[in-house]
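Continuing the series of single-chain predictions for the mutant panel. This is the parent chain; the variants come on the following pages.
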Amino acid sequence: MVGGSEWARLDTVVDKALELPPEARDPFLSNVFADDPETLATARRVIEAVDRSNGFLEGTAPTVDDVTPPAECARFGAWRIVGELGRGGMGVVHAVVRVDGGFEQSGALKQMRSGDHVDTARFAAERQLLAELDHPGIARLLDGGIDQDGYPWMVMERIDGVPIDCWCTERAVPLEGRMRLALDVIDAVAAAHRMLVLHRDLKPANVLVDADGRVRVIDFGIAKRLDLSAQTEAIAPLSAPYAAPELLTGAPPGPPVDVYGVAALLYELACGQPPIDLAGVPVALGVGRVLEVEPVRLTARRGQCPVLVQAPSALVADLDAIIARALRKEPAARYPTLEALADDLRRALDGRVVAARSGDRAYRLRRAIWRARWPIAASLAIVAVLAGGLVATEVQRREAVAARDAALAEEARSEAVRQSLYLVLAESVETAGIDATSRDVLQRATDRIAAEFARDPAESARVLHALGELHFYLGDYAAAKAALGPLVGGGRNIPRDTLAAARYDLAQAMIRLGEVDGARPLLGQAQAYWGRDPAKWRARLIDSRLVEAQILRTSDPAAAVALLKAAMMEHDAMHGARNRQAGVFQNNLGVALQTAGDLEGAGAAFRAADAIWRATGLTETPDALNTANNLAAIEMLSGRPQAAEPLFAQAVRVRRKLFGASGGTAAVLNNHGKVLLILGQVDAALAALTEAAAMAERFAGAGSMHQVAALSGLADAQLAKGLTSEALATARRAVAASGLGKAPPPARAMSLIAQAKAQRANGDRAGARASLDQVDAIVPALGPAGARLATAAADVRKAL
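Parent structure:
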């Protein structure tokens, strides 16, 4: 294929060849390109296409100025010309009004101009097929006839609109909005396809957006009835930068020509220029460029295109793959129908896997992790790599990433997780079989890599770290700690950047397990390493404020809020406010505000996070679930349990679907159980809290915040059911677990209140008072969060 640097030479040679008699052209080309058969073949195709085109490019046929336009006020049937709307390769388009028929109506009149390339019979036939089209997104044919010189004319519905590219530019429409407009275009043209009509000339000037924001497709002037028996096709006047290659060579067209046209239109909407830019290119080479040159990928243009810069990177990558497929030179390699193209665009907008990237294993696995679906049995079919080679691949990739700037830190971590999933799935093939659960498979892979790490820490450290991250993402914090612990204490042979990241992730897992004191020095060590080169690790340092605030909010919620607000401003300045990490910042800010007693501010932060999940297509992710759970908690704290219950129920359903049993699932299940208890649904609450307590102990660990909270709620449910002795035993388990030093002080206070209730119910009034005295000693240091616990303890005292 001819590269960009070779076009200048090809341009000069082809121009010279076209000046020669036809019989002398090929010998001339053969001589010039005797040592370059590939370029010779390209030159021959260009010459052949130019010979066959007979003026297909707009501007190569006789110009509009060569045709004497009808005079102002000239009549065409019932229509009178009142002005000019525009000029193009097919002729002048006039504004007309109806002057008889008893009603007023405006339209756009198009008249075929004179020239050898005009086929009046064909024009009349195609005008008839346009009359059959009936769709709100297609300008309707109103009238038609033959003028006094024998040339056909037609009057189309006049659309007072703006070309789609101008409309988007004027309103700074984001990429998602431009894609949705393209879906409206597809809907209209697909309706024509169902009538076996192809448009064949889709470009920005032929797609208008009216005052109501509706897309209207115009100018079916070269539309054609689909003929499956056609072998060749006469070349019609076209807009070459947007025309499918087969339209330029005379090959019989089918639905893929409009698939190409829509993709070319969407390409320009995304980056401001057509996929094959022919500005300043001689006509002789225009055909060759369309036939030979591959469009520059959107991802390569992203830095120069504001629309792409502001869009989520995942969406840009998906759209890039979709457009690349739709713009392929061979019709059979594109989407077979417009509906298939539309389906992929919708998948991209929804954050689902797009068909255009179905062959990209790493992409599919990334989506599997990002959406946390873990369909292991289905994933086995796409694992076709050797597990042994993955370690080296991961190490090499990480070494390359180490040199990149800090803005890509989050993406680098995700890539490591993706590579580790290869190991997980490969392990399932080797030893587990398709009936093994994802968690069992993950644990076996972790054990295998941990054993390898003991023999060769330097080579296995990065993969072991990534496996620890996978456990963490699954909500199995104890397993994450077990995987990351040996890595953190592994000695000098571990890469320093991997060690810092592992310390950071271990700190996160320990916080979830209630081991805040152990997490604090690990976080400090990671931040100290990144602080040695703050320019390189700026993104990591900003992200680390999330964990720092989690530690800080247990003792100083107001300081945690201030820290998060400052870090969020830094993040937004660096990455923008519409990405996953921006949503995480908003969610954590909401938690800190809630802990500080600002329920209104917390609700606003959670809603801002929810808006980010919707805008970025991340509505079914662990982050989005956490936000939904937090919003439901705000409803509870605001005294609206009826509003909170369906939110918690939905969170439980989605969490089970994505993760199965995990520490995070236990937390959501616990919250739902407590709401059910408040609403008087005791049996349902008892079942939910029993399951939550067992799940929290298994996955979050004995003495964790999740376990203590679930046991405390279970004791309350047992009391409501009349199981007083069982309630006392459960409450004592909660108090004992809270004394292990992992759960934060609010959890211990919660367990003591549950114990006081159970002691009172069992007649131990003195024991109840002693439990409440311990609560009174805890709550003053808890700030606003302690006030709610103090109120709950006071209610129990009144009952005594």
